[in-house]
Design brief:
This protein has five helices and no strands. By secondary structure, it is mainly alpha-helical. It has a single domain, classed as Four Helix Bundle (Hemerythrin (Met), subunit A). The radius of gyration is 17 Å and the shape is globular. The chain binds fe (ii) ion. Fe (ii) ion binds next to α3.
């Protein structure tokens, strides 16, 4: 291994080579790492509130997944990004997996909690390095909505409810 030119490949932490060149998307991606850290910490130090904490973290993960994917896909749709359909399909597959894990946990399969931290890290790193890097230079700070995720999901809910 060439120690000088070898780029960090660790899935434990965010590294600059994961940047897609859009500040808010990099921030979203870093938030996934922090959420994985939180889950690792909760699982690593058993506490009387562990169950509630895991459930809270899983709920946040589902919200993050929804909001972040919406941010990327809305920007892609706005600029007519040609790879939107396949990118959205990859998002959908991960969202379904995260939802399944959340359901499993809530229905009593507590062992799944130990796998989430690693799953999130591995998925996000793999997805950034392959699919997200394809929009590097195409999605920019100028054409991506940089408001907090809650506003994006609220907008979408308004549209579903018939608000303008
Ligand atoms: Fe993506």
């Amino acid at each position: 291994m060439d120690l000088v030119t070898e780029k960090p490949q660790s899935t434990d932490v965010w590294t600059d080579d994961l940047s897609v060149g859009v500040d808010i998307i990099d921030e979203d991606h870093q938030a996934f790492f922090r959420l994985a850290d939180l889950l690792r910490d909760i699982m690593g130090s058993p506490d009387k509130n562990q169950d509630m904490l895991v459930e809270t973290a899983i709920n946040i993960l589902e919200e993050y997944v929804k909001g972040h994917f919406l941010r990327e896909e809305t920007a892609m749709a706005t600029i007519g990004y040609p790879l939107l359909a396949e990118h959205a399909a990859a998002h959908e597959a991960f969202a379904a997996r995260a939802h399944q894990i959340a359901q499993d946990y809530k229905s009593g399969n507590k062992e799944v909690a130990a796998t989430i931290n690693d799953l999130v890290r591995r998925w996000i790193v793999g997805h950034i390095r392959t699919m997200d890097m394809q929009y590097r230079g195409v999605l920019t700070n100028e054409n991506v909505d940089n408001r907090p995720m809650a506003y994006l999901t609220a907008d979408e809910n308004d549209q579903a409810d018939g608000w303008p």
